[in-house]
Design brief:
Blueprint lengths: L9 H7 L2 E3 L5 E3 L5 E4 L16 H10 L3 E6 L2 E5 L6 E5 L4 E4 L5 H15 L4 E5 L21 E4 L2 H10 L2 H12 L31 E3 L5 E4 L2 E7 L9 E5 L4 E3 L22 H15 L5 E3 L6 E2 L1 H26 L5 H7 L4 H4 L11 H13 L14 H11 L3 H13 L3 H14 L4 H17 L3 H16 L11 H6 L2 H9 L4 H4 L4 E7 L4 E8 L2 E6 L8 E5 L1 H8 L8 E4 L2 H8 L14
Parallel strand pairs: 7-8, 8-9, 9-10, 14-15, 17-20
Antiparallel strand pairs: 1-4, 2-3, 4-5, 5-6, 6-7, 11-12, 12-13, 13-14, 15-16, 17-18, 18-19, 20-21
Bound molecules: zinc ion.
């Protein structure tokens, strides 16, 4: 910790530069008074770093807590600190183009209002979604109801929906650990989430884009605002893009280069990102745009000014992802496993000496494991790990071998005394999984998780540890985060809707069931057939031959209604109507509050 470059105050200068106005109080509510954002609850971050937080993370939290309207350069403004992400506003001939309208409509509306209070009542003449993550589009209905050009990278809609729908319930549950909304905001509790302070909890929306950015070099002009795009699919998101505003000499880096080491794989879970491609795109951004921009900004954190500083920032970010990638491959080709590589790789000293390579959301440890996973998967090649007992069954046997729960707790205390909290956590986790009623083990594990959390530089690690401690003490915390909105379900394609049903089929319950249904989507003019056999629901577009046992004629909205539990009233049916009931009878429901730190 002594090596941290605290003398470098450049980030504080950049984070304050161009400040125009705060939102005061910085509390945003729904129309019925529910608080969806409260930046003021982080005021404690202005105090000195306490013993319950890593100084590097505390510093980063303090930077993220800065909020208000900022001028980035003439005609380009940002509202920061009013959600997890930033909203950028690029002024045009008649109005303003909104880049990334935050997560919640309430926050986006408040951000736009703050901007207008200082820059006049300019109409929103266009929207840009830099990528397909909800913190970059969810608030769109807070700034427009549509009817203006909405630009997004190719594949946006597919990825906006699929990245969160199929594994959505599990990701949502794990996201509650990653962001820690149930944790108190305090020096002992939640102090940030890496890319910002936390996610807002208001109304999410989605208006489909109208202009697709399909290639690097593509140019578009909206309301006189010219943009030159660089596509970066597979880096931070499966559909993402950087772009230059040549008229303003400003470079938007989306979420590809922010002031921290990002996630190659976020702890909530996702498809693994490609660190190699990520580094290549940052190199390409350098060659395309360096020298053409006097300021680089992103949809998280604060901008970087000056051509030379932008070039250094981008090349260091590029080198960081390239280093992680290449060293992981070098070491796995020598036979090291993911956990061993994670223990071995250290950032080069020159990179470690700059703040923006530090992992507040990603970390060297879990990014290296993600790169290993991308190339080699979960199996490390050791047959001992090929067919292990699952966690509870293993735990019961370990505890038995060690002489019972009380003995495991005694061993754990020994490792705690030696400050090996990592192994103490492993031992105590066995004790709790073997016997959830072992209160001494639970309490001690909660204590160990708390200490690990307080020592973590990475905000998402801290939140995971502290959520683990909280749930060991108080039981499972109720979900506070919303993921799917009505817009979101309507944005699903028919294929995705049937996919969503297929992944709810309880296989064994459906083993002996056989049925088929034809779905005539009257508003789309499409016919789909779903067939259940061998415990799987297969879908077929435009099926040939005879009609199915049951034919339903309905609109897509009615199909979405069926999915969200509405009945079949108003839907024209032909054939055996019990078929639909038989299908519904084999559908399972996800568990939104499954156990994580207990078996
Ligand atoms: Zn984001």
């Amino acid at each position: 910790m002594a090596d941290l470059p605290f003398h470098d105050r450049g980030d504080f200068e950049d984070a304050d530069r161009g400040f125009l106005a705060k939102l005061s109080p910085a509390v945003i509510k729904t129309v019925d008074g529910r608080v969806v954002w409260d930046n003021d609850s982080y005021d404690f971050l202005q105090e000195d770093c306490p013993g319950t937080a890593h100084p590097s993370l505390w510093r980063h939290g303090r930077l993220c807590a800065k909020q208000g309207l900022y001028e980035v350069t003439e005609g380009v403004y940002q509202v920061r600190g009013l959600d997890l992400s930033n909203m950028t506003l690029a002024e045009g001939d008649h109005g303003v183009v909104v880049i990334d309208p935050l997560i919640s409509t309430e926050c986006a509306a408040a951000a736009l209002k703050l901007y207008r209070a200082h820059r006049g009542d300019r109409p929103v003449t266009g929207v840009v979604y830099t990528h397909a993550h909800a913190d970059h589009y969810g608030g769109v209905r807070g700034v427009t109801s549509g009817g203006v050009p909405i630009l997004a990278p190719a594949g946006f809609m597919r990825h906006a929906v699929t990245e969160n729908v199929y594994a959505g319930p599990a990701m949502t549950r794990r996201a509650a650990y990653m962001y820690g909304p149930a944790l108190p905001r305090s020096p002992e509790g939640q102090i940030g989430a890496g890319q910002g302070l936390t996610a807002s909890t208001g109304t999410m929306s989605l208006i489909p884009p109208t202009v697709e950015i399909a290639r690097t070099g593509q140019e578009e002009t909206i309301d006189g605002v010219r943009m030159i795009f660089q596509l970066t699919p597979g880096a931070e998101a499966p559909a993402e893009m950087n772009f230059l505003l040549p008229g303003r000499r400003a470079l938007c880096l989306a979420e590809n280069a922010t002031h921290n080491q990002h996630n190659v794989l976020p702890l909530r879970g996702a498809a693994t990102r490609d660190a190699r491609a990520w580094a290549r795109y940052l190199g390409e951004a350098l060659s395309m745009f360096a020298g053409l921009a006097d300021v680089a900004f992103a949809s998280h954190h604060w901008p970087t000014w000056g051509a030379e500083r932008i070039e250094r920032f981008l090349s260091q970010q590029r080198d960081m992802y390239a280093y992680l990638h290449d060293q992981t491959l070098r070491l796995l080709n020598k036979g090291l496993t993911a956990a061993e590589i994670a223990e071995t790789v250290r950032m080069p000293p020159e990179l470690e000496q700059v703040w923006h390579t530090h992992g507040y959301s990603g970390s060297v440890s879990h990014n290296v494991k993600a790169i290993y996973q991308r190339y080699l998967g979960w199996f490390d090649g050791n047959p001992a790990h090929l067919w292990e007992h699952p966690p509870r069954e293993s735990a019961i046997r370990y505890v038995e071998c060690m002489g019972g729960g009380a003995a495991v707790v005694a061993y754990a205390r020994r490792y705690i005394d030696e400050n090996d909290l990592r192994f103490a956590a492993q031992l105590l986790n066995h004790a709790v999984f073997a016997d959830e009623g072992n209160k001494e083990a639970r309490d001690l594990l909660a204590e160990v998780y708390t200490r690990l959390g307080h020592g973590a530089e990475n905000a998402t690690w801290r939140n995971f540890y502290l959520m683990g401690a909280l749930e060991l003490s108080d039981g499972i915390a109720p979900a506070l985060m919303e993921t799917a909105s009505a817009d979101f379900f309507h944005a699903l394609t028919v294929e995705q809707i049937f996919d969503s049903i297929a992944i709810r089929v309880d296989g064994p319950r459906a083993w002996h069931e056989r049925l088929n249904i034809d779905w005539h989507l009257i508003d789309l003019g499409e016919r789909h057939r779903t067939t259940l056999s061998n415990g799987v629901l297969i879908q077929q577009f435009d099926p040939p031959g005879e009609s199915a046992e049951l034919t339903l004629r309905l609109t897509k909205a009615q199909l979405v209604g069926l999915l969200s539990g509405k009945g079949v009233e108003g839907i024209e049916r032909e054939g055996d109507t019990t078929v639909l009931q038989r299908l519904v009878a084999v559908l399972d429901r996800p568990v939104p509050d499954f156990a994580i730190v207990t078996a």
